[in-house]
Amino acid sequence: MVYVYATLLTLCNLVFLVGVLFNLPGTWLMVLLAAAIEWWQPGEYLFGWPVLYAAAVLALLGEVFEFLFSAAGTRQAGGSKRAAAIAIVGGVAGAVLGTALPVPVAGTLIGASVGAFAGSLLGDLWAGRPLFHSIDAGRGAAVGRFLGTVAKLAIGTVMVVILGLAAFL
Question: The pTM is what?
């Protein structure tokens, strides 16, 4: 029965990993499912609490990277704090709208980057900065959002491997 749980966990974790592209809390869903299986099968000792704690730390690290890259891209390009904050909101809104693009999976990532660009641009213009300066900050926000999502995907991939190996071994 342990191998059935391990197989189901690994398949669900792969689905959750794809969910990261859609701004869903895929890394946290991985941790939650693993903890639920560990709780339901206490005698089987499928993972062990150290593995679950490590997965939770990795999920938190993925969130921190995604947030910091999004804001840092704007700030590094010379954008204001307002632009950085609105770029984060714009990235989430763009990801939701980008899901409707006819490009599967990549449409969400494209939408998030475009939304971060638009949010940063609007934030800088609202702060009274010149247009070309605002465009540079928007470009930085788009690149930061893209890199943040890629970093979170990389961490999610590590989580899938760790939880999968721990479940099967």
Answer: 0.81
